[in-house]
Predict the 3D structure of the following.
Amino acid sequence: MTAWYEKSTFYHIYPLGLTGAPKLNPADGPAECRFGELMRWIPYLRSMNFGALYIGPLFESSTHGYDTRDYRLVDRRLGTNEDFRKFVALCHEAGIRVVVDGVFNHTGREFFAFRDIQEKGPGSSFCGWYRGLSFDWRSPYGDGFGYEAWQGHYELPCLNLQNPQVKEYLFDVIRFWIDTFDIDGIRLDCANVLDFGFMRELRSRTEGMKQDFWLMGEVIHGEYGRWVNGEMLHSVTNYELHKGLYSGHNDHNYFEIAHTVRRLLPLDSRLYTFVDNHDEDRLASKLRDHRHFFSVYTLLFTLPGIPSVYYGSEWGFEGRRTRESDDMLRPCVSIADEPGYHTDLTDYIRTLCMIRAREEALQTGAYRELLLTNRQYAFARTGSGSAIITAVNNDDNPAFISVPVPIHGEEAVNLLDGTVLPVCDGRIGITIEGGQGAVYKIKGV
């Protein structure tokens, strides 16, 4: 049976940015409910045919959301635990699953265990909770001890995930979020550096907490099969394909994309695919020719993988990170302004979401390359009794291609516009406009 996450297209929201929350979160400040604004997005997500939402970070934190202060509180800049519980319930009523960030590699310096070490020194019972903790040197913050920090950022001390007490604490946190909010999965921040033993035990524990609970990890580099397997995670972020989708168009080089897809078989349908996110420059700021938006998104939705759209990118938002700030990637946006943002790309993504939700072949179907040149690319996804053929063209001019059909059928229907092509001698002839894509369905006979 196909799992819910294999069927879904994700929408990705960075809530602190979207709602315009303050950059700093005073420890004694009141909760300010911004979930009212977030709730107004739910009908929009449903109208766009998104079946799942990845939203985070949400843990109570001091600044950007990844310096956790309290794992059992929703960040007070967004609202209360009850506000988020209502938000998830409304998402579920709309048929939208909810996945949140799990920031388990490190905490903030205001986390209770770190504070206890600051107060009690070697006498703290939490000294074993952090990696590399030593009282032989001082951190750059002047603590009476040093510790391992994530990528040298000493505001983010690294947890010791081999410590049984730390593991039990975090497993209890996950159970709390499942029991209290009914979340459907967790995206593991910094999964590429998390302890493998911790992730194996996490998979075993969460399988008993909620059926089809999804574990997706942030992995930028490495062999994805080390993380995605029956013992550890269900999915990881497909940064390889992310890079290929824009550079393959910028360089008129579909070989790069096709090579990446072939290399990642047979993990392909399980990987989380995207063109931009809260850490990466927007596609509109990376793609040299914006006419290629349509071919890029055609590939995102029809190649193997679990596609995701980052908020605002369906409207063609631009944004680049700088050395000082990620603010341009994480803008404040009101859904009330959607009519002014709406473009042809928005409608195109809505249609692609609908097609993927309906077509089993695009969810779990086998991949088969049919045609490949620098500027044209065609492939099939085959399911039970049908096949979907995708063709894209990154040239400036229209292109005609003759593509073999992987199953016996009489006609091919373009799922984007309803036009029909005959199957002649096991092939279809497709004309594709420059920068565009076509998605044809063939029913077996």
Summary: The first helix runs from residue 4 to 7. DSSP finds 15 helices and 18 strands in the chain. The chain has two domains: 4-363, 366-443. The chain has a mean pLDDT of 97.
